[in-house]
Amino acid sequence: MQSRKIEIIPSISILNNKITRLKQGDFDQEQVYSESPIDLAKKFEDHGIRNLQLVDLDGTRKGKPVNYHILEAIAGHTQLEIDFAGGINTDGDVNKAFDYGAKKITAATAAVNRRTEFASWIMSYGREKIALGADAISDTPEGRKVAIQGWQKGTQIDLFEHVEYFYSRSLKFLKTSDISKEGQVEGPSFNLYRDLMDKFPGIKLIASGGVYRLEDIERLQEIGLYGVVFGRAYYEGLITLKEIERFVVKGKV
Questions:
Q1: Entry pTM
Q2: Which DSSP symbol is given to 100?
Q3: 155 φ, ψ to 5°?
Q4: CA distance 65 to 82
């Protein structure tokens, strides 16, 4: 069992200036929340959270980031380390995200469509600032195939071969979702994460999708993951901020 505590990373997804959750990335299955992104980010910080994933759903749909103003506002009102994602496809997008306060960016579609350029970002911006988003439906008859454009487009790219390309080019941070688990509150894809940890020693793996109880987080910590992203579990009251605060402080419930 690893000695360090797993990083707890809440996710705020923005669509039309509002916090919005999508079921399995489907824009036709959205849930809109009334709380402001800035107020929610401050609430997370008040309960001991240090990291935040900010997803620009407008940017995902348009192919370029839109919600830099929300990134800037959260960065200006909190000390959270923000990982910004959604529509980042060019070097200019990356620069602008950092200018507006992101500490790290995560890109998925660019890593498929412009993989040489994405690999160059790892070197030019540094391994600490560039994360690969590589999401797939695991354990299907076709194998683990990467999906892009907010999961709206499938590919024939094998997940492990895709990660290997960047791992061999100094990739440090990998965020992976099992799309079939996203929003289903059935628990994460533990087998997928074990396989990734075994295949890529030293990778800082961040799990996303399926977490709905603290026991899931504890199990991911035992496997050795660097971090875990949660969203729906909080928004639907399955995990409370008090529970998260106790976990952050003590490393257990």
A1: 0.90
A2: T
A3: -135, 175
A4: 15
